[in-house]
Amino acid sequence: MLSPYIDARIVNIFLRQFGKQLPDDVHAVLIWDQAGFHKSKELLVPGNISIIELPAYSPELNPVENLWQYFRSHYWSNRSYNGYDDLRGSAVEAWQKAALDGELIKSVCRARYVERVI
């Protein structure tokens, strides 16, 4: 899902769509930071999704932070964009390339602290 902004309403749309895509016998766990839109009292988390909040101010624990850095260093830096649509296209292209490469995602987003628990 791509949006020019993010707030509790957008997160609710994401959660609803994500929850609908899960098979009936699957329960998903999302690990995310304490951004305001993640902590909003307006959030409606489907029953097949659980949320684990990372401690405040701990980007080193958030695996997706590594992915954003990867995108910046491999796709988005040292480039100019002609506007939102151009930037959006670059974001979608980078996401598709990374998301379709399971080994890349495992490498970039590896969270050793989770492996120790498992």
Strand content: 5-15%
Low-confidence stretches: none
Order of helices and strands: HEHEHHHH
Identify the strand order in the major beta sheet. Answer: 1-2
The strand count comes to 2
Supply the number of structural domains. Answer: 2
Biggest sheet, open or closed, and with what strands and sense? 2 strands, parallel
Terminal CA distance = 29 Å
Average pLDDT, all residues = 90
List the total number of helices: 6
User: Roughly how much helix do the residues carry, as a percent range?
Assistant: 40-55%
Shape: globular
What key phrases describe this protein's structure?
globular, about 120 residues, 2 domains, two-stranded parallel ribbon, mainly alpha, about 10% strand
Describe this structure in words.
The protein is mainly alpha-helical and 118 residues long. It has two domains: 56 residues, no CATH class; 57 residues, no CATH class. The chain is built from six helices and two strands; from the N terminus they run H-E-H-E-H-H-H-H. The protein has a two-stranded parallel sheet. The longest helix has 16 residues. It is globular.
Could you give a quick summary of the protein structure above?
The protein is mainly α and 118 residues long. The protein has helices at 8-21, 36-39, 63-76, 84-99, 102-108, 112-117; strands at 28-32, 49-53. Helices cover 52% and strands 8% of the residues.
